[in-house]
Design goal:
Largest sheet: 5 strands, parallel
InterPro entries: 2C_system_His_kinase (IPR050956), CheY-like_superfamily (IPR011006), Sig_transdc_resp-reg_receiver (IPR001789)
Oligomer: single chain
Keywords: Phosphoprotein
Radius of gyration: 13 Å
Order of helices and strands: EHEHEHEHEH
Organism: Roseburia lenta
Modified residues (4-aspartylphosphate): 55
Protein name: Stage 0 sporulation protein A homolog
Amino acid sequence: MRILLAEDDFVTRKFMMNFLSSYGECDAAVDGMEAVDAYLMALEDGEPYDLACLDIMMPVMDGYQVLRSIRDLEADHGIPEEEQVKVIMTTALNDEENVKMAFDLGCSVYSGKPINKEKFDQALKKLGLI
């Protein structure tokens, strides 16, 4: 499995990289623009990501803007919905408004911080990734 992690906090990024690397190859981006660039490069190389974990509060572009950009790129490349990258929003913002916005933009799972490893595993199984 190919995984893209977009997380600006060093400690959280290190934790998530260690955790996610047991599932497959994991690339990290420190801001939203870097995440979109990495996603586009993978798409153009014919090796798209299977999972993207996006923080909402990031510099340059927030997680919502990244998600919107990813879904736009997939539409531009004619990628059918069932082949689109699975997106897990990872954030401390757990209010109803943020959750609804994330799902409206096309996220697959919304995971609050701190990350609960057991629930994260369950989410990956539900998405058919493990």
